[in-house]
Amino acid sequence: MYEKKRGKDSFWYPFIRELDRQRGRGQLAVESPLLWSKKELEYLEGSPMKEVVSARLEGIRREYNELDTVWFMAGSLFQQYPFDIPTEAFTFDIFKQAFVAVQSCVVHLQNVPLARRFALVPLGPPLLAYKSTCKAMLKSNGDAVQLQVDRPYKVGDAIVVWCGPQANARLLLNYGFVDEDNPYDRLSVEVSLNTSDPLYQAKRLVAQRNNLLAIQAFQIYRGKERETVLNMLPYLRLGHVTEDEDMQSILSSEGPVCGVSPCRERAVLDQLESYFTTCIAKYPTSLSDDLKMLEDSSTPPKRRVATQLLKLEKEILHNCLAVVRELLDQLPSSTPVPCSGPYVPTLR
């Protein structure tokens, strides 16, 4: 921001001018949702992405509020800038635009120490297109980042680069695009044991014994919905245990997290069915509505990329719901009514 105030006197003037022109826009000509208007953010209604954007904006606001402290405590960093303190020299909106411009240049490097995991590639967004499935990638080479291509290029060819193992929500937030073929796309379901449960400490101990947490996040990858739902079931069965005798039996065993009983199994599956149904109902549009929106050539770019994200999220949720309903149908018709207790785990 200080260099921008120096205008053409800045060594970085041509680069900053290019960043201003790009405004963090990705290959679909869409800027990060961090710069969308309130009305445009409504395109994300029903999606966890809306909460992610809100949380990131709050974080940027905190960074902005701390700028003056940094300016006073590390004054030597700013000696060449004869301007006012940051929050007097720049508004929050200007800082947010600068933050997004820099964020769009961050790349995620592989096979390097954690301290060198992220790098800035300033001309990345204007010159490259990102794809989740291609083999060309940006790699660390000493103190530089080098583009290693996967095929010969001719003048005028678009350069497509692997963008790292990032979910579509992250790609949209950082780079302004969604990749429909992204094998790393996923939704997260957080399951929490009920802290009011008299058996909470015992359940937490069993969870830890099985390398799980009292608040456990399950990542649902597209195409692997069945696998994830089946992985969630033992944890949910544990959360639904109500009898101390059952809990003692689980504690003394060395087998799976929790055994299966017919009534508990129906309670667990009913809870999952209710959760996925509720998640789907939060979206104001259906999958068919999304497909029509994407087929319409007049759909604005931001609305289009938001619809792509929502469609992919709904497909994951619908697939999970189908798995749960299939498991419910497999229960014997004589299965007793669900035996849910007052301290069932929470899902969010």
TrEMBL record:
SUPFAM superfamilies per the UniProt record, alphabetical: RuBisCo LSMT C-terminal, substrate-binding domain (SSF81822), SET domain (SSF82199)
Keyword Transcription regulation: no
Positions of the Rubisco LSMT substrate-binding domain: 195-317
Entry annotated with the keyword Methyltransferase: yes
Keyword field: Methyltransferase, S-adenosyl-L-methionine, Transferase
MF (Gene Ontology): protein-lysine N-methyltransferase activity
Example GO BP: methylation
Name of the protein in question: Rubisco LSMT substrate-binding domain-containing protein
Originating organism: Ceratopteris richardii
